[in-house]
TrEMBL record:
Residues 41-65 are annotated as: Disordered. Residues 75-162 form the ORF 12 gene product N-terminal domain. Residues 221-322 form the Beta-lactamase class A catalytic domain. One of its GO terms (molecular function) is beta-lactamase activity. It comes from Serinicoccus chungangensis. This is Uncharacterized protein. GO terms for biological process: beta-lactam antibiotic catabolic process; response to antibiotic. Transmembrane segments: none annotated. Pfam families: Beta-lactamase2, ORF_12_N.
Amino acid sequence: MRRVIGGVLAVSLLLAGCTDEYDDDVAATSTPPLVVQTAAPEDAAATSPEGGAATSAPAPVDPADSIGDAELLGAVEWVLELLEEDAEGPTVREATERVAPDLLEQVSPVELGLVLGQVRSAGPYVVTAVVPSSGVGRAATLSLAAQDPLLMTVGVDEQGRIATLFVQPDTSGEPPVVDAWPDLDAALVELGGTSQVVVGRVEGGTCEPTWTTSGVEAGGEAVPSASVVKLLVLLAVAEEVRSGGLTWDEELTLAPEVMSLPSGELQDRPEGSTVPVREAAELMISISDNTATDLLMDRVGQRALRRAAVDAGLDPTAIMPVPTTRQIFQLGWQVDSEVRTRWAEAQVPETREAILADLPDRLDIAPETVTEPRWQDGIDWFLTGAQVCSLHARLQQLAGDPAGGPVREILARNPGLPPPEGVGYQAFKGGSLPGVLAMSFYVEPQEGAVGGDGEPAAPEGLVLVVQTRSAEPVDPLRAATIVGAGLQHLVDVGG
């Protein structure tokens, strides 16, 4: 049964030139998908974990206290005015002045007014939280309290016009109580499917797993991890820079063979335009740009990816060759099931390499058709939690090298979730594909911080990896709330 908001049948309407993100990092501080979506999972938790009513209502906040960008603030305030009870419009003139042309090519002022009117009918709304984007782009996400709470993201282009408008039900709910790691495992059951938690301590460029979900071998099983594999790509890039085979300011050229599907923004740039290696790496990590990923993979090559995998303790027989995002989309949603069967049954890299070589030259997939889970067919990048932890550890070690200087900033550009109290540095990489949701965090305590036992916190860093796979969609907002409680526990107990 679909949820009804404000008496209006739940709908999902595209408000920009791309569809709902199927490979988003579920980051509370990054730019979300560019849609107005008022459909909510039937079983989404909008109240307390026990199913009772939510606790006391949060206090109203002023967006001006959090948004320092004057143009972005003006755009946010304009949208909020349109959501007031007695508001109308926008008029054609207002929409033309306020909304980016690319968005208006997809949605007319009349259609925009109809959608905003539907959202308005579910109000009135009170702004209770504002989180400016810390990834790439100028955007802010607002929590809107009402009978059915919403999350709204507004983003602007270089001219200050609205290029992003995303409204979705706030299914985040109340955080669970996590006093021990089995509590996090128990809370994740709410998401459906199967979840795996791995916790590790990082010292000297290596990871020592300290907790793995009960019933799973230490360090975790190799499970679908979606865009978390981009940590491996960043590691290969950083190692190539250190060896002298690449520089952070080298210009890479966008060509048809490296153009992938969203998430990201490079797929919308003109063919033949260039992007520096560092910018591509920042886009790959902070907004999970798929075209940036494939561009970097094309530049460093499979040999560099293999060296990085071996350095991080990954099994090259299991992971090589590393498919590009473009190839994963083709395997999962362009070619027929016979190809997927051969891919799933392939035991050696040479067989998988031959399958990839036979894929069509053209990427011919409508993004909105990427909905069916394909991880059961082996279509994804499969990593253990310990391997993800090892990638974080190796990257932080390389960051200490002069050539790896940008790595720490790149990894921290989008922290994924607000850093818990006591954290001095937080890196993040997550990812999702249909039926797959993965989040990984590397945190370092503030100087002088202590763990819950009163002992000094971890000497270098701590890692939390949560990987969920399901035959059904996974609610990313509820997952973020649950994992956020686990992240706080990680900091409290020091691993």
